[in-house]
Amino acid sequence: MRRLKVMTVFGTRPEGIKMAPIVKVMENTKEIENIVCVTAQHREMLDQVLDIFEIKPDYDLNIFKPGQTLTGITTKALEGLEKVIVETQPDLLLVQGDTTTVFAGALAAFYQKVKVGHVEAGLRSGNLYSPYPEEANRKLTGIVTNFHFAPTNESRENLLREGYPEEKIFITGNTVIDALFHVVKEDYIFEDSLLNNIDFKNKRVILLTSHRRENIGKPMENIFTAIDEITRKYEDVEVIFPVHLNPKVRNIAHKVFDGNKDIHLVEPLDYEPFTNLMSKCHIVVTDSGGLQEEAPSLGKPVLVVREETERPEGIEAGTAKLVGTSKENISKELDLLLSSKEEYKKMANAVNPYGDGKASERIVKVIIEQMRKSM
Where does the UDP-N-acetylglucosamine 2-epimerase domain lie (predicted)? Predict the structure, then answer.
């Protein structure tokens, strides 16, 4: 029997991180011909991931442009992917997550009547405009998906409620845990001397990330002001903030944080140093989706500075708290974690609901089993 042609399509750093473990498993699976196509919706940050995992794409659409719009990303990705799909004739196209590349990839496959596998399927916030445009991308992708790889039972239940057939939904765990175990090292040394000189043993370091479109403006200013005030209250607290490249985020960061010696604004970090930084910190404050999954695997309490989250499993398990974007509530929840050892331990020791590091193997096994039935 001939080998299955499976094309993985991804375009951003988070997608690359979560797709890389699957690509590596497929590289060593004799039943599969592995084709990698990147849109490069993000360029530099995606390249960092490709280097870490030693992945050389077979096709690189290189669509990134400064100031790109959602419409521009979608149309360029669709046009580029159509050519690649027509040329390679894959049996299955695999996408991951919720970006515009994911939606464009699934739609391009559908137009060519190629089956679609959706990794990390079934996440829902319940608000179509938050996160934006990710919530819509996930739902739109689901419509043309043949195999839904749900990371958790809650994701599976979301898909069942929307009417997707039970036999096409597979609980796998989240591949981000697979990737995390690959790169975190106890003796890791940073290239940045500032990070190497942080006293992680005697200081309680907060890792801050914030970049979501819906938080830019007053919500982000509230988040940063709460962080600024908490460092002035606790002498042993320092903050590391890898600042997103978006100029609007940078302007707010400098407006609030300039002059505070306990808050270190650094350039965006590659995946490997970032995850190792996360492993050394005390608390994570974030509006990111992926960090809500990664930090609990490292025993780090997560305060989610958003109004909704499509990852409720961490909230329910107690590894994360959804604290919104009001300055008062963020300050209160940070104060609780910093003043109460019991509260901190309760979150740090909660069981991570997102997987055991073997999600990629499960996904590849399902692909082979399911695709063989239809060939």
Answer: 26-367
